[in-house]
Amino acid sequence: MVQQVCQKLEVTERRACKVLDQARATQRHRPSLPSDEKRLTEEIIALATKYGRYGYRRITALLNNQEGWKVNHKRVERIWRREGLRVPKKQPKRGRLWLNDGSCIRLRPEYKDHVWSYDCMVERTTDGRAFRILNIIDEFTRECLAILFGTQDYYPGCD
């Protein structure tokens, strides 16, 4: 910014910094990257690819313990952010395949009419009376096999 003002208005750096209310020292500092920055970046990307669920803290520990680096976690975090690395969100488990205790008793559908599922819904009419709907679905084709409806007396198990 200061360089542009100096060239455009043909003024000195001192005057441009004063007008822009910047310290002159900000124009003198040239950031320098460490010589091993590129190699470290490649190593971080390789570890992040290999261990997809690890964040920058665990990658730092791997670098320090296994890879022979002596690197600060803040430096790894800076590189991590610069490269746009992220830990992906956990995938939700498919609820229809497991029970609450973790046992897997239901089958994955492999062909038509192999696995059916049902769902009970409760609705109300305009005058407030409740009725229930029982939906039966083929899991493989996602085809609705039947829609049965009635009052609570017909489907008492749909609670």
How would you describe the overall organization of this protein?
The chain is an alpha+beta fold and 159 residues long. It folds into two domains: 68 residues, no CATH class; 44 residues, no CATH class. Helices cover 34% and strands 16% of the residues. It has six helices and three strands. A three-stranded antiparallel β-sheet has the order 1-2-3, with no helix packed on it. Helix 1 crosses helix 2 and helix 5 crosses helix 6. It is elongated.
- How many beta strands in the DSSP annotation? 3
Poorly predicted segments: none
- Number of domains as seen in the coordinates: 2
Please describe the biggest sheet, giving its number of strands, its sense, and whether it closes into a barrel: 3 strands, antiparallel
Report the portion of residues in β strands: 15-25%
Q: Roughly how much helix do the residues carry, as a percent range?
A: 25-40%
The radius of gyration over CA amounts to 32 Å
Order of helices and strands: HHHHHHEEE
Q: What class, by secondary structure content?
A: alpha+beta
* H/I helix tally: 6
Shape designation: elongated
- Distance between the ends: 69 Å
Strand order of the largest sheet: 1-2-3
Q: Calculate the mean pLDDT score and round it.
A: 82
Describe, in short, the structure shown:
Helix content is 34%, strand content 16%. The chain is α+β, with helices and mostly antiparallel strands and 159 residues long.
Q: Could you outline the blueprint of secondary structure elements for this entry?
A:
Elements: H1 2-9, H2 13-20, H3 25-28, H4 37-50, H5 56-65, H6 73-82, E1 116-124, E2 130-138, E3 143-150
Antiparallel strand pairs: 1-2, 2-3
Helix pairs in contact: 1-2, 4-5, 5-6
